[in-house]
Write a structure and sequence with these properties.
InterPro entries: KH_dom-like_a/b, OHR, OsmC/Ohr_fam, OsmC/Ohrsf. With about 140 residues, the protein is α+β, with helices and mostly antiparallel strands. The protein contains three helices and six strands.
Length: about 140
């Protein structure tokens, strides 16, 4: 096993209707099952929202790094990551993901290349490569 440069740890109690807390207590969240999944749609978050949030932040950081190399200004950029849970309980559930970057003022082809480069280096993208259908989308002023 390689030496970790950072370790994150979280514990869940009660699954989708419980809570999750990180080892440093910086994240302490109640969980609820969305109505779309047969739950009560309570006030808590859910694993898909947490997954989308983590991947969006990680991808945005990777995009900032690849954009610097391509000389793209991403100071006003935003990344939205949409996680769809597809399939059925009987057949199995899977994720489908859309990653959309809003990069005002960027040339669309250059921005798309930066997105693809970010997807190649982002740890979430690398960890899920070949397991999740992912669509990369860029929105610029020219769209």
């Amino acid at each position: 096993m390689t030496t970790a440069i950072y370790t994150a740890s979280a514990t869940s109690w009660g699954g989708r209707t419980g809570k999750v807390v990180t080892s440093d207590n910086k994240l302490d969240l109640d969980l609820s099952i969305p109505k779309d999944m047969g739950g009560d749609g309570g006030p808590g978050t859910n694993p898909e929202q947490l997954f989308a949030s983590g991947w969006a932040a990680c991808f945005h950081n990777a995009l900032k790094a690849t954009a610097r190399q391509s000389k793209i200004d991403v100071s006003e950029s935003a990344v939205t990551l949409t996680v769809n849970l597809v399939g059925s309980m009987a057949a199995g559930l899977d994720f489908e993901v859309t990653i959309e970057a809003q990069i005002p003022g960027a040339d669309p082809a250059t921005a798309q290349a930066a997105m693809e480069a970010a997807h190649a280096v982002c740890p979430y993208s690398r960890a899920t490569r070949g397991n999740i259908n992912v669509v990369l989308s860029v929105v610029t002023d020219e769209d």
